[in-house]
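Subject: Protein entry, chain in single-letter code together with its fold tokens

Area: Proteins and the way their chains fold up in space.

Attached in line: The record itself begins immediately under this heading.
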Amino acid sequence: MTSSLRGIFAAVLTPYAEDLSCDAALLAQHCRRLLDEGCHGVSLFGTTGEGPALCAAERCRGLEAVRDAGVPTDRLLPATGAASLPETVELSRHALSVGCCNLLVMPPFFFKNVPDEGVYRFFSELVERVGDASARYYLYNFPAVTGVAIGREVVGRLRATLGPAIAGVKDSSGELAYMTGLLSDHPGMAVFTGWETLFRDLVRAGGSGNISGMANIIAPELRRIFDRPDDTSLETLRAALERLVATVSGMAVTPAIKELTAHLRGEPSWRRLRPPLEGVSAADARTLRKAFDEFRAHAPAA
């Protein structure tokens, strides 16, 4: 039982128009640009993409716009998780209807510290209600945001009962032992990390790669590390990456990455966020731009 997904996936930012509607045209353009810059694929409407701030209809229209712009559906990993089971089913069915078989699903994130049985039942009910044998689900473990952990035992039960439908896990907890434990428990299952500073070690341990927000701005550098995980000549690049990630992660991450995207692309509209998120302060923006420019200065050329 193997997974076809592997590599660097951008957790894509969601751009907004002046009225704070999703700018689907810019979203599609951005996804195509990220693939050109080295991403193996793109993941829409996750944490970095402010997915919970968008209604189901907006997420469906955005996914269709990206597909219609020519992004191959086998390089799309839409996030279909929502606070309710019926909406998660709706989003998952829609993604499948437009040709996306790979789905990234976080557990419901309103009720905190729920028992493992509840987490298991949510995912098993989802797979049964969607009822499509072609669907491949990637469980999204990010307890710091959702308040709900997807334990290794739950993953094991789901794999045992649902088989190839449970294709992988994206872990954003930052616990390398959790990820390597999953690799040991389930040979051939895809395991991704949401932390750019961990994916080299994960890939060397047999993991599948990285799904994270920083790929919006440093996709070529992340791809270089992925392609050459044992290359000691890239230590300078990895050290520069750790410094940049430390700066970004010390702030509100999505606003920080949007600030850097506006800086990199020369497109101020990337700074727009939906309430309750707010942009970074002027001082933090200067800190971010300085850190990014230093990263680029110290990152060796390909």
Notes: The first strand starts at residue 7 and ends at 11. Strands lie at 7-11, 41-43, 102-105, 136-141, 166-171, 190-193, 209-212.
